[in-house]
Specification:
Elements lengths: L7 H4 L15 H69 L4 H30 L2 H4 L2 H18 L1
Helix pairs in contact: 2-3
């Protein structure tokens, strides 16, 4: 953490203000110095926070890029596994005596429909999880209701 740059010489300085009647710094001078130091402190804290946020954004961006590459590689691998599975089903159907071109057609069609059903099922599950009712902040709404009820009781 960056330490604030305090101007201590102002605090101990004597004022020659004829209205104060004393050589000690006046309350207004002390408040002015405090205000200036608070401004410096706030600026430094803001600069530190801004710097940290920039660093975190870079880390997140790099991580996101890595996730995208990993997902692309996993998708390619999954696609190849599905092709191999479809070919295996085709070979199994061919072993049952079905002509080769029809056996592979049956194998690839069967695996395609299985993948389609899995995709539809996952989509429906994701859609229900993202429904407006599930995204509503339940505890906050309940807390606000309780606060409103409490306030109404106090008014009556």
């Amino acid at each position: 953490m960056i330490s604030p740059r305090f101007e201590t010489e102002q605090i101990g300085a004597r004022t020659d203000d004829p209205r104060s009647g004393s050589a000690e710094p006046g309350v207004l001078q002390l408040l002015r110095t405090l205000w200036e130091q608070l401004q410096v402190w706030a600026e430094q804290e803001f600069a530190l926070a801004k710097s940290e946020v920039k660093e975190k954004v870079k880390v997140i961006a790099n991580g996101f890029a890595l996730v995208v590459v990993a997902l692309a590689a996993a998708t390619a691998g999954l696609f190849l596994v599905i092709l191999a599975l479809a070919a295996a089903v085709g070979i199994a159907v061919e072993a049952l005596g079905v002509e080769t071109k029809f056996a592979y057609l049956i194998g690839f069609t069967t695996i395609s429909f299985v993948c389609l059903l899995v995709g539809i099922s996952l989509f429906k599950s994701a859609k229900s999880r993202l429904s407006a009712e599930n995204l509503k902040p339940q505890r906050t709404v309940e807390s606000l209701k309780q606060t409103a009820d409490w306030a109404l009781q106090k008014i009556q």
